[in-house]
Specification:
about 210 residues; alpha/beta; 8 helices; binds D-xylitol-5-phosphate; binds zinc ion
């Protein structure tokens, strides 16, 4: 399983150094959580911060947009150095148009589903997607408990992709640590996001290794 540490749990005053720390510790991607205070109650980072930390690593930037109008910010995050942009199927933008805009910018597009959204909500778009992100907490905050009951969605998505001959990566996000990762691994998730589990661990490299091995 690939590991994408979420910067939401890092020391925000040292974000560049924190990126270097998890890069050296074996991260595969860097997960950046963008929140607008509307789609979710929290406010985090915007394109200026993504751009500021971009020079600190060559790892792909996996930008998770938790905002009402993702289509309006795709150019800004592409310019800032995003490699993957995921946005919520529950957001207010035209989904096909937003996926096209991401792809046209040479960025890999993904859709995200909240816990109450069925896997089938992304089926109409699967053939245009690089990734589907299955939330295992309600989006908005780090440090919440992993929802194991989301795993059937991964199985459903994998089965649908296989049926259609598609190779779409499945990422899980929320409450992933060495204690919960085996459940996501058993469901055959490809990438796990981990904020608290990596940044608050005593030893980030050891934490990432345990996630890798799951
Ligand atoms: C939640 C974010 C997650 C969050 C995960 O809305 O999408 O990426 O940082 O944090 P942990 O791993 O602490 O649950
Ligand atoms: Zn996230």
């Amino acid at each position: 399983m690939k590991v994408a540490p979420s910067l939401l749990s890092c020391d925000f005053a040292k974000m560049g150094e924190e990126v270097v720390r998890v890069d050296k510790a074996g991260a595969d991607l860097i997960h950046l959580d963008v929140m607008d205070g509307h789609f979710v109650p929290n406010i985090t980072i915007g394109p200026a911060i993504v751009s500021a930390v971009r020079p600190y690593t060559k790892l792909p930037f996996d930008v998770h947009l938790m905002i009402d109008h993702p289509i309006d910010y795709i150019d800004a995050f592409a310019d800032a150095g995003a490699d993957i942009i995921t946005f919520h199927v529950e957001a207010k933008s035209d989904i096909d148009a937003a996926i096209k805009k991401i792809s046209d910018r040479g960025v890999k597009p993904g859709l995200v589903i909240k816990p109450n959204t069925p896997a089938s909500a992304v089926f109409p778009y699967l053939d245009k997607l690089y990734m589907v992100l299955v939330m295992t907490v309600e989006p908005g905050f780090g440090g919440q408990s992993f929802m194991a009951d989301m795993m059937p969605k991964i199985t459903e998505l994998k089965a649908e992709c296989q049926k259609r001959g598609l190779d779409v990566l499945i990422e899980v996000d929320g409450g992933i640590s060495e204690k919960t990762v085996s459940v996501a691994a058993a469901a055959e998730a490809d990438i796990c996001v981990s904020g608290t589990g990596v940044f608050k661990a005593k030893d980030a490299a050891a934490a990432i290794e345990l996630l890798h091995k799951a």
